[in-house]
Write a structure and sequence with these properties.
The complex is a heterodimer. By secondary structure, chain A is mostly beta strands. Chain A has no helices and eleven strands. The model of chain B has no long low-confidence stretch (mean pLDDT 94). Classes of the chains: A mainly beta, B mainly beta.
Chain lengths: 112, 111
């Protein structure tokens, strides 16, 4: 079973609105990462947050991590049509060889 | 800078045939991974390697074998392809447990 589960599975918003995606995971982690995938392409790394961090920012992206609830959220502010993509969270554990496991992803559609 | 390169990008196989996917990275990364992506399933980890000469099983290893004879290369083999292995395969590499760099994917169809 996959470690991370994203919510919602799909999200449709207007350009300029904020988009929030959530991720829950099951076991202890070393870090949590968010990736973006445009249709038919490989994944691109967006941001990494370590288990001892609670919040991180990168441009229009804000990521929070709550290790007590085993959950994370990705906020994209002032969304643009070019933000349309699938977004995945991934967790790197601190046991079992540090493998990185992905969730099923959230499909974001930003309407112009 | 090539990054992570996967070959071939497309392949059609008949049930029972074998093939090897090649992944090459030029970033001197220690860790390499093979994932498969099916519609609605996200990425599932097949096998991974934490260094030259090492491999380990991921979430869905059955039906696949891997080898990491050189640090820069990670090979994924299908000995006897099945229709259930029709998927998009992604290779990735990372320095350690940090940012993963992905290839553009290899689309495999098994008839």
């Amino acid at each position: 079973s996959q470690q991370g589960e994203e919510d919602p599975q799909a999200l449709s918003i207007q350009e300029g609105e904020n988009a929030t995606m959530n991720c829950s995971y099951k076991t202890s982690i070393n870090n949590l990462q968010w990736y973006r995938q445009n249709s038919g392409r490989g994944l691109v790394h967006l941001i990494l947050i370590r288990s001892n961090e609670r919040e991180k920012h990168s441009g229009r992206l804000r990521v929070t991590l709550d290790t007590s609830k085993k959950s994370s959220s990705l906020l994209i502010t002032a969304s643009r049509a070019a933000d349309t993509a699938s977004y995945f969270c991934a967790t790197a554990g601190n046991t079992g060889g540090f493998k990185t496991i992905f969730g099923a992803g959230t499909r974001l559609f930003v309407k112009a | 800078n090539a990054g992570v390169t996967q070959t071939p990008k497309f392949r059609v196989l008949k049930t029972g045939q074998s093939m090897t996917l090649l992944c090459a990275q030029d970033m001197n990364h220690e860790y390499m991974y093979w994932y498969r992506q099916d519609p609605g399933m996200g990425l599932r980890l097949i096998h991974y390697s934490v260094g030259e000469g090492t491999t380990a099983k991921g979430e869905v290893p059955d039906g696949y074998n891997v080898s990491r004879l050189k640090k820069q290369n990670f090979l994924l083999g299908l000995e006897s392809a099945a229709p259930s292995q029709t998927s998009v395969y992604f290779c990735a590499s990372s320095k350690y447990t940090g940012e993963l760099f992905f290839g553009e994917g290899s689309r495999l169809t098994v008839l």
